Amino acid sequence: MFREMRRSRQQLSEKDSLAVLDRGKYGMLALLGDNGYPYAVPLNYVLWQGKLYFHSAKQGHKIDAVRNEPKASFCVVDSDELVPQEYTTYFRSVIVFGDVSIVSDEPEKRSAIEALAKKYFPEDSEQHRNAAIDREYAPLCMLRMDIRHISGKQAIELVKRSEER
Length: 165
Ligand SMILES: Cc1cc2nc3c(=O)[nH]c(=O)nc-3n(C[C@H](O)[C@H](O)[C@H](O)COP(=O)(O)OP(=O)(O)OC[C@H]3O[C@@H](n4cnc5c(N)ncnc54)[C@H](O)[C@@H]3O)c2cc1C
Known about the structure:
The protein is an alpha+beta fold. It has one domain: Roll (Pnp Oxidase, Chain A).
């Protein structure tokens, strides 16, 4: 159902792809938007218990798109080292395909926003984090992406670099 990578030497292992997702700060969630136009929207996220979670307002283009069509992809760029003299980029990125849904289970919603908050502000105290979450909780919507396929790819130059080590 999902395509193989043509240049398989550049493919990252699943472990390395998950590591990219773990350390990434944001990615582009690509949804089927209005009138058949793809809607790629930048979002922060957390990889938690094997799923991706996003926080969102309860209304808007993104939420309408998710309600309309759960199938989505999410792309995170890990490296974008521009090498002008070679007219290339030493890139590393991951693309996830999956189904996005609005989290309706309250304990899951709470745990997911806590995991997201811990990712972005790990030094925070539990008390301060909980107070911040409580403040924003009512208008908050959590989205979950169930991962169906994950692929990671890096520039051939990065493959060679890692082989030389
Ligand atoms: C690095 C980064 C991280 C972000 N993290 C989050 C996050 O974790 N959670 C979150 O809710 N939002 C985040 N945002 C903001 C996010 O990109 C959206 O603007 C926001 O989620 C509202 O989306 P919407 O579809 O509800 O907006 P709507 O206002 O309903 O969108 C209407 C239209 O506004 C335009 N639009 C919306 N967002 C953008 C945008 N970012 N850039 C340009 N045009 C836009 C589009 O044309 C869209 O069709 C982040 C943005 C950036 C750049």
